[in-house]
């Protein structure tokens, strides 16, 4: 007996050590992200600053206090600091074991320990330097204390140690995170219900109520910050989740350890959803009438109530992340373990339920570990940004970071000065930016993609207005921009504007009058709501040349200063937002038009102006030649898709160095845009006249124009200067590859070989069609037809589908209309339908030789007095002249070998 008591619990120890090893994996390879760096910065400050920052953050103090003590002993490296949450995550494992053992015995405890040790979500948040591992451990300890108090009720008074444990667990919950109140509230409801149902004496509640009063009194100071209307836990631009989105996010995080799964992983999401249903429903049935059913029922009720209260908090205070509900994963793990470990009742459905539950657990692990190994879900890492700045930022430059972003302060040790921009109101932000950059030769900005501090684009607008962008680099989760400051920073010089769209009006504008190629135009736009918009709107600015070609565009969602989209605006509300419109390097000098448009963010529907136009002109800007070296900081040339021509072409100091075709794979008969990038390799160029043509066995399309005469002919180009040239051509209706050829004088070269997009075309006749054969002119053959019915009634059209084969060898120059008519025996017209092939989706100029065109025509009655049989004739005519296309063999209409019956209404 004595030996059995002294025996070590080797299985338990092995599982706890396994959980520790899993949480240790990859710990030192992860950089700190935004919140983690704030935790370190907060804990390292002096006491006065510590409490000031903590009050501003509105966060409960327990975890920062623990981290402060831990870091002073263990150090502040990523590995050393993260050992605190990892230790708390490992501490959770024996607590989960004890809770499951209390409900279902040792086997249930071992099963729960296995599930918790390998839980992807618990592992992920045991490696994060935030309070979530503490919150999970406190929840497990708190519910253990609750169970112990309820188990002791009516038998003996709970010892002081028991009440102290309960009180410490509750205080740890409340002082770890505000959402700990959901677990505390759920426990209180269950305790009150337990005492009411069992009709226990009120005296048994005294210890419980005393513990609640002590916890509430201690928490009262921080509760005031939570209830403060100006508290940062309220996000003005945030939307309260509905029940469906709330559960979706919670389920995915519990199962996979991340907030959102990629849309391509819908199967994994479905598995996670099924998992939550199974963990809530199946254990209830499996544990029914088991030895400790009452304990399992309490834990199930605790989980459900806490989830409901967490949702209520999310709706009330709006700010929500599914990691706030991570502690509620503990009761679900325990319930699943108890259900899997409970002795079988002999019923087949119980065995099936256990098998399904075990399969759900395995599926969860697969989901979580698949996500853990997927780079797309890795944490955003500033270390790459810091290393780049360490190598490139110079003394005399300033690095601007966003409010509360202490990652740069943790990692960067270079010569440039780091300044945190804390202001959010426009005028105050401009003053702070001007003050921070007044002595700086260059300015770097570090933008975290999730940050909403500058969602309206004031920073880049102000910096672009006072200088030029030198480079922009993207790192994982961050964008780094480097500006050369030329003049002191200042705000927009507003002038009145009056551009009215449906429900919004542009009332103010600041637009520069000049720009260099390779630079950008900054636009400040002030909008006013004239009516409720009901949907979020976006504004798009464009830069157009004289020929009507749009070279660049920039768009952004309309937001007010609080970050709310236009569907939350009230009529009369005004809001400014800012756009950067890049000017491509090599855009020919001259005058260009800037326009503005508005569209719905969800449907992409363009919102017209009051005059009915999609875009409204804002004014002309003068684009000047790019005097410096080639640069593309905004990535415009990369977006154009320029690539080297297949064959080199260089004539008399002019060299073709790049080409792009939009679309890259055109459909037959589609208009395409060809962009050529020329470079002057010598001074004093002659007036060149390049020819761009599409050919295969013959030339299909030709575009011949002098280069930018008279505004900027090649005779004015400087040596080394690169210029963009845009041409428009019609892609031929061919199935074979087409060569894009550029010719200057007697020199020519293949610039590109284009493959047509035939994915929407058919070249096989339909099997179900009635076969006929009728040739119209030299471009169309009717090969079949199909009828939806053999009867036609008023108000119920009959659809006749014709099948044409394109027999043209060249592009059909004329648009044609197809006619389908029903004739009475005396030859008069009783029903018809005229229209371009396939409702103009396949007009005849787009027909490709050999293509089969399905062409439906809904016949409608034109003689309501006629009833009886009718014959069908079909044909084509020129849409402009109305002249019919003749049939081979004579006539201008083909009679189908069938008849229909015209019926009365």
Can you characterise this structure?
The chain is α+β, with helices and mostly antiparallel strands. Mean pLDDT is 86; it is low at 229-234.
Secondary-structure-derived class: alpha+beta
Based on CA inertia axes, which overall geometry fits? Answer: globular
**Strand neighbour order, sheet with most strands:** 24-25-27-30-29-28-31-32-26
**How much helix, percentage-wise, in residues?**
25-40%
* Rounded average pLDDT: 86
Topology, number of strands: 32
Give me the Rg, rounded. Answer: 36 Å
Measure the end-to-end span: 98 Å
Main pleated-sheet profile: 9 strands, mixed
Number of helices: 22
Low-confidence stretches: 229-234
Percent of residues in β-strands: 25-35%
Keywords:
905 residues, alpha+beta, six-stranded mixed beta sheet, 22 helices, 35% helix, 26% strand, globular
Give a short summary of the structure.
The protein has 905 residues and is an alpha+beta fold.
Question: What is the element layout, followed by pairings?
Answer:
Layout: H1 2-6, H2 10-24, H3 34-44, H4 47-57, H5 62-74, H6 78-104, H7 106-117, H8 120-126, H9 132-152, H10 160-174, H11 180-197, H12 206-227, H13 243-256, H14 266-286, H15 293-317, H16 329-341, H17 348-372, H18 383-392, E1 398-402, H19 407-411, E2 417-421, H20 426-437, E3 442-448, H21 458-466, E4 467-475, E5 478-485, E6 495-500, E7 504-511, E8 514-516, E9 520-529, E10 537-544, E11 550-557, E12 574-582, E13 590-600, E14 606-607, E15 615-624, H22 636-640, E16 649-651, E17 654-662, E18 671-680, E19 691-695, E20 699-704, E21 722-730, E22 738-744, E23 747-754, E24 770-776, E25 780-787, E26 791-793, E27 798-806, E28 816-823, E29 829-835, E30 852-861, E31 868-878, E32 894-903
Parallel strand pairs: 1-2, 1-3, 8-15, 26-32
Antiparallel strand pairs: 3-5, 4-5, 6-7, 7-9, 9-12, 10-11, 10-13, 13-14, 13-15, 16-17, 17-18, 18-21, 19-20, 19-22, 22-23, 24-25, 25-27, 27-30, 28-29, 28-31, 29-30, 31-32
Helix pairs in contact: 2-6, 2-7, 3-5, 6-7, 6-8, 6-9, 6-16, 7-16, 9-10, 9-11, 10-12, 11-15, 13-14, 14-16, 14-17, 15-16
């Amino acid at each position: 007996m004595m030996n059995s008591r002294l025996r070590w619990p080797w299985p338990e120890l092995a599982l706890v050590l396994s959980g520790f090893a899993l949480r240790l994996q990859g710990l030192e390879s992860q950089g700190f992200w935004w919140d983690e760096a704030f935790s370190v910065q907060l804990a390292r400050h002096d006491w006065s600053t510590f409490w000031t920052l903590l009050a501003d953050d509105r966060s409960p103090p327990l975890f920062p206090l623990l981290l402060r003590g831990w870091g002073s002993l263990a150090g502040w490296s990523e590995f050393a600091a993260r050992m605190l949450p990892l230790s708390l995550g490992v501490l959770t494992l024996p607590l989960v074991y004890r809770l499951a053992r209390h409900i279902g015995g040792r086997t249930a405890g071992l099963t729960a320990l296995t599930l918790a040790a390998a839980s992807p979500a618990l592992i992920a948040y045991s490696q994060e330097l935030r309070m979530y591992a503490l919150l999970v451990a406190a929840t497990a300890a708190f519910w253990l204390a609750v169970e112990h108090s309820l188990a002791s009720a009516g038998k003996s008074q709970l010892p002081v140690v028991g009440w102290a444990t309960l009180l410490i667990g509750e205080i740890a919950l409340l002082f770890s995170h505000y959402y700990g109140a959901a677990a505390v509230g759920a426990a209180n409801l269950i305790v009150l219900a337990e005492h009411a149902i069992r009709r226990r004496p009120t005296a048994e509640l005294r210890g419980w109520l005393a513990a609640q009063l002590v916890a509430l009194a201690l928490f009262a100071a921080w509760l005031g910050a939570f209830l403060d209307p100006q508290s940062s836990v309220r996000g003005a631009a945030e939307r309260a989740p509905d029940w469906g989105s709330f559960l979706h996010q919670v389920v995915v995080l519990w199962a996979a350890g991340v907030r959102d799964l990629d849309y391509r992983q819908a199967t994994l999401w479905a598995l996670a959803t099924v998992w939550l249903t199974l963990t809530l429903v199946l254990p209830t049935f499996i544990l029914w009438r088991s030895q400790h059913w009452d304990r399992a029922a309490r834990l199930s009720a605790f989980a459900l109530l806490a989830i409901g209260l967490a949702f209520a908090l999310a709706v009330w205070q709006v700010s929500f992340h599914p990691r706030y509900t991570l502690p509620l994963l503990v009761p679900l793990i325990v319930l699943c373990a108890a259900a899997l470990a409970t002795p079988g009742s002999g019923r087949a459905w119980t065995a099936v339920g256990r098998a399904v539950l075990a399969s759900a657990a395995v599926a969860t692990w697969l989901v979580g570990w698949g996500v853990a190994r997927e780079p797309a879900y890795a944490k955003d890492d500033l270390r790459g940004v810091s290393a780049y700045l360490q190598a490139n930022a110079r003394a005399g430059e300033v690095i601007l970071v966003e409010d509360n972003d202490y990652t740069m302060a943790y990692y960067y040790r270079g010569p440039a000065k780091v300044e945190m921009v804390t202001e959010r109101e426009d005028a105050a932000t401009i003053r702070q930016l001007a003050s921070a950059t007044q002595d700086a030769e260059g300015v770097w900005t570090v933008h975290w993609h999730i940050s909403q501090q500058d969602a309206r684009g004031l920073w880049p607008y102000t910096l672009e207005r006072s200088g030029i962008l030198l480079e922009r680099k993207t790192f994982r989760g961050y964008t780094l921009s480097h500006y050369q400051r030329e003049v002191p920073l200042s705000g927009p010089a507003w002038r009145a504007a009056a551009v009215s769209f449906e429900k919004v009006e542009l009332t103010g504008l600041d637009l520069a009058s000049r720009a260099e190629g390779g630079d950008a135009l900054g636009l400040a736009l002030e909008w006013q709501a004239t009516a409720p918009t009901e949907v979020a709107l976006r504004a798009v600015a464009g830069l157009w040349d004289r020929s009507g070609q749009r070279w660049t565009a920039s768009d952004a969602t309309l937001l007010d200063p609080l970050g709310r989209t236009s569907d939350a605006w009230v009529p009369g509300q005004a809001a400014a937002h800012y756009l950067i419109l890049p000017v491509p390097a090599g855009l020919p000098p001259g005058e260009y038009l800037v326009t503005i448009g508005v569209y719905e963010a969800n449907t992409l529907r363009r919102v017209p102006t009051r005059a009915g136009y999609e875009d409204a002109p804002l004014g002309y800007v003068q684009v000047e030649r790019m005097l410096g070296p080639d640069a593309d900081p905004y990535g415009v040339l990369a977006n154009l898709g320029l690539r080297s021509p297949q064959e080199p072409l260089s004539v008399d100091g002019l060299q073709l160095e790049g080409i792009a075709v939009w679309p890259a794979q055109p459909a037959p008969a589609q208009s395409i845009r060809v962009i050529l990038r020329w470079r002057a390799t010598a001074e004093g160029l002659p007036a060149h006249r390049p020819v761009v043509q599409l050919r295969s066995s013959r030339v299909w399309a030709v575009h011949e124009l002098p280069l930018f005469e008279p505004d900027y002919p090649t005779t004015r180009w400087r040596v080394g200067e690169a210029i963009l040239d845009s041409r428009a051509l019609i892609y031929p209706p061919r199935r074979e590859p087409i060569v894009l050829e550029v010719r200057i004088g007697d020199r020519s070269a293949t610039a590109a070989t284009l493959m047509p997009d035939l994915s929407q075309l058919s070249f096989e006749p339909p099997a179900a069609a009635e076969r006929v054969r009728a040739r119209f002119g030299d471009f169309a053959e009717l090969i079949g037809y199909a009828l939806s019915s053999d009867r036609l009634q008023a108000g119920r059209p009959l659809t006749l589908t014709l099948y044409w084969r394109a027999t043209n060898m060249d592009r059909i120059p004329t648009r044609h209309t197809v006619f389908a008519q029903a004739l009475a025996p005396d030859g008069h017209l009783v029903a018809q339908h005229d229209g371009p092939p396939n409702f103009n989706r396949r007009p005849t100029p787009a027909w490709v030789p050999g293509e089969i065109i399905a062409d439906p025509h809904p016949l409608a009655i034109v003689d309501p007095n006629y009833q009886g049989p009718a014959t069908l004739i079909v044909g084509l005519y020129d849409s402009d002249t109305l002249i019919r296309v003749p049939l081979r063999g004579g006539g201008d209409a083909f009679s189908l070998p069938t008849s229909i019956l015209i019926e009365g209404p």
